What we know:
Layout lengths: L11 E5 L2 H4 L24 H15 L3 E5 L2 H4 L9 H16 L3 E7 L5 H5 L8 H16 L5 E6 L1 H9 L12 H24 L7 E13 L5 H23 L10 E12 L2 E2 L8 H6 L12 H15 L3 E6 L6 H20 L4 E7 L18 E3 L8 E3 L1 H11 L1 H4 L2
Parallel strand pairs: 1-2, 1-9, 2-3, 3-4, 4-5, 5-6, 6-8, 8-9
Antiparallel strand pairs: 6-7, 10-11
Helix pairs in contact: 6-8, 7-8, 11-12, 12-13
The protein binds 1-deoxynojirimycin.
1-deoxynojirimycin binds next to loops.
Amino acid sequence: MSGNFTFPENFLWGTATSPTQVEGHVVNEWTDYVASDGGHCRVACNHYHRYEEDVDWMAQLGVNAYRMGIEWSRLQAAPFAPLDQKELARYIHLLDCLKAANITPMVVLHHFSNPPWISAAGGWLNPATIPAFVDYVTKLVASLKDRVYLWNTFNEPDTYASLTYLLGGFPPFHKWNFRSYRKVIKHMAEAHVLASRVIRQNTFSREPEVGIAKNWTSFGAFQAFALWDHLLAEVSHHAFNRFVLDAFLGGQRHENSTFLGVNYYGRARLNHFQALVPTNGVSHKRLKQLGIVCDDMFERHPTGFGKLLKKFHRRYGLPIYITEHGAASTDEDFRIRDLSEHLHELHGAMNDGVDVRGFFYWSLLDNFEWQFGYSKKFGLLSVDFADEKLPRRITRVGEFYGGICKAREKTAR
Length: 413
Ligand code: NOJ
């Protein structure tokens, strides 16, 4: 990226992970899950035991923010139970290590996992999950309010609800149950509103900020005249974007978010009802023949990023955090190019007046990518999973991104 880039001085240049993907030793619905590459999350990156070292790596990279999950299943053994003090102390120590390294935490309260007792009671289909979650949040926030002011209630509710109840990819692996999909979204939206009120009732040393992280995929038809693909794209857009944003931010609900988190990876174009992306089993060779640029998961569409930010700014008028962007590939040049192109778009949108407060690269570490196990390489640090010591190493993308993070003072406007 050229040196002409300027970002606000207090801009957060961060990175992100989630508990099930990096911590290891979790007891939730993913514990016994075996991914398509044979991998499981039982040890993952062992961030659970190695968080101090991982904070050192973050400091070495030069990031000044870390979007991290706190795993509900570790902290509450039963509905409305007191928080497990030992596990809480571990998270508090992690937050203190971050503080010592001048790294601002953003805490994610729900990232695709639940305590076993929630799953056993029907998960987010059961309305009783809402007060149970709010109770957990109440207790957690009371314990962390001196250390955390950035709260991300739900990560990608649409991804979670669709993979659990429409596409059968996440436990409990149901398929095509639209009623369940809608119910989960509505319950999560209700829980977001209540959790947000609870968070903001507390007194913080710094004004709290609360929001969801919305995954954004734009859907379109690959061929201009394929009417059915256009129709399916419109239906998908409605179900996964519009309906979800309305549930969380529509009408009065808007007041319960102080920011909008955006996870942006790209787009899905449909061809004869099939999404032309690698995660759908379409080969790289075929995608290349069609002129579609992808990482190992999705189609890249950097210009869509800038447009989206402007649209969100106009529609919601909320400050935005890019809660995730990254690319999965072993081709580091590709990943560097991808990051650079997206930062160009981000910078352009900010120059046009969009209030973006931070950018969190997905991910700090190569990690457990849910259904795909360890086959997708997203890390600023690579992890050698074949070696039981799980050695970390800064990738070239890590060096590139770290360079931008470290230059932030020089380029601040
Ligand atoms: C979104 C999810 O929040 C995260 O868990 C996942 O690993 C990345 N996208 C990449 O697919």
